[in-house]
From TrEMBL:
This is Glutamate--tRNA ligase. Residues 5-313 form the Glutamyl/glutaminyl-tRNA synthetase class Ib catalytic domain. A motif ('KMSKS' region) lies at residues 246-250. NCBIfam families: gltX_bact. The keyword Protein biosynthesis applies.
Length: 448
């Protein structure tokens, strides 16, 4: 059976690093199995969903290189939910409830006050036919709850958490439909997973108790012959937290735009998030196929995964140092060629810094003031500069012999005169890029 995974964001905001990680893992799971990765837009909440976010989600996935193999939208599937709802109603698995939000809140408070868990008391199920009719006559429209089956424990073998067991009696019958007819998340998601043939539901551990409920929905829908499909496998990954170990607000708003602005390469984010929270080492791996091949849910830990910007920066720099000229060419300053890229690349944390370093080649550069003996030394350097295969080593060897200088006094004044800086790219690579005429002019100017 083809593996089918899905990423199901609600378009009520931009993707943040936590959603990106979930999307990535679903993509990897599908790719590793040679299956399909689907995007499902969870836009049943018409009030909060925005088209601009749908577009931003698609654009972010494209930037990350996680293009889906297909897309579905919940707002286009409302008839399906209606049909599933009718099937469940016929099977006696949904029931109308008339409590107001205030009444429910009061019940909760009383339960908590008595030290009891705030589980819905199924008051609506106890209403007589007449009481229900009276509510309707008063014009109270019901909301609808899914009736959990209390007889069997809910169990599944979670891909990350192992054997899971829930007592349905310890859960509230979930509200699946509001009084205005609109849908809450729970049922549409289960219906879609069945209709789309999703084989693996991989999501954050904040959904564990939803899974318990949805497992009963899948079973009920299959039993009601709404669908012939099989129940998917489930896996819940530990949540992503900030370095300080807490769920942070900052992470919840940290998205692709912010990373792009900082100069983070999508492959750096992918390499980090692919393995963060697993027992596999986070490494600057540029090859997607290597990350996909090593993807393994059994290496995922139960402890929260810690997201550290400094680690992302390290991975980014290491990946920039490996990037080919052809993959960055269009982002480099005018005139910077392959040799230039190779000379400068080891100094970069981000590709956009190439422009600053390239100015060392194109000039103008600002030289420091040199002491008299260094000026004489630089004048000597200008005289001895000769052009060949390797002008830097030719020059420094000649100067070493002529002046007896070595180490820092030999190299530093030259670097300062030629680039205006104390450190930077390998001079042997840089000098040929500066060129003979310009290099001599800089040495002469420094010596003056
Ligand atoms: N729209 C839901 C969310 O963003 C989807 C959860 C799921 O993967 O089923 O939390």
């Amino acid at each position: 059976m083809t593996t089918i995974t899905r990423f199901a964001p609600s378009p009520t905001g931009r993707l943040h690093v936590g959603n990106i990680r979930t999307a990535l893992h679903n993509w990897m799971l599908a790719r590793k199995a040679g299956g399909r990765f689907m995007l499902r837009i969870d836009d049943t909440d018409a009030e909060r969903s925005r088209e601009e976010y749908v577009e931003a989600i698609r654009a972010d996935l494209a930037w990350l290189g996680l293009e889906p193999d297909g897309e579905e939208r919940q707002s286009l599937r409302l008839a399906k939910y209606e049909a599933a709802f009718e099937a469940l109603k016929a099977a006696g698995r949904v029931y109308p409830a008339y409590e107001t939000a205030q009444e429910l809140e009061l019940k909760r408070k009383i339960q908590l006050g008595r030290g009891l868990p705030p589980i819905y008391d199924r008051g609506a199920l106890k209403l007589t036919q007449d009481e229900r009719a009276a509510k309707e006559a008063e014009g109270v429209a019901p909301h609808w709850r899914f009736k959990l089956d209390h007889d069997e424990p809910i169990t599944w073998d979670d891909g990350v958490r192992g054997a899971q067991k829930f007592d349905a009696a310890q859960l509230s019958d979930p509200v699946i439909r509001r009084a205005d007819g609109s849908w809450l998340y729970m049922l549409p998601s289960a219906v879609d997973d069945l209709d789309m043939g999703v084989t693996d539901v991989l999501r954050g551990e904040d959904h564990v108790s939803n899974t318990a409920v949805q497992i009963q929905m899948f079973t009920a829908l299959i039993a009601a012959q709404y669908a012939a499909a099989k129940m998917p496998r489930f896996a819940h990954e530990a949540l992503l937290v900030g370095r300080e170990g807490k769920l942070s607000k900052r992470l919840g708003s940290l998205g692709c735009d912010a990373f792009r602005e900082k100069g983070i390469e999508p492959q750096a984010l992918v390499a980090l998030l692919a393995r963060l929270g697993t027992s596999q080492p986070v490494e600057p791996i540029a090859e997607r196929s290597a990350l996909v091949d090593s993807f393994d849910l059994s290496t995922f830990g139960r402890a929260p995964a810690k997201f550290d910007d400094a680690e992302l920066e390290r991975i980014n720099a290491a990946l920039v140092h490996q990037m080919d000229f052809t993959s960055v060419e269009h982002r480099l300053p005018e005139g910077m060629d392959e040799a230039g890229w190779h000379a400068i690349r080891p100094n970069l944390s981000h590709v956009h810094e190439a422009a600053d370093w390239w100015r060392l080649v194109t000039g103008p550069i600002e030289q420091p003031e040199f002491a008299e003996d260094d000026r004489a030394y630089l004048a000597e350097a200008a005289r001895r500069l000769a052009w060949g295969d390797d002008p830097w080593h030719a020059l420094t060897n000649a100067l070493k012999e002529a002046t007896g200088r070595k180490g820092k006094p030999l190299f530093l004044p030259l670097r300062q005169a030629l680039t205006g800086m104390d450190h930077g790219p390998d001079m042997a690579e840089l000098l040929p890029l500066i060129g003979e005429v310009e290099a001599r002019a800089r040495l002469v100017r420094a010596a003056a």
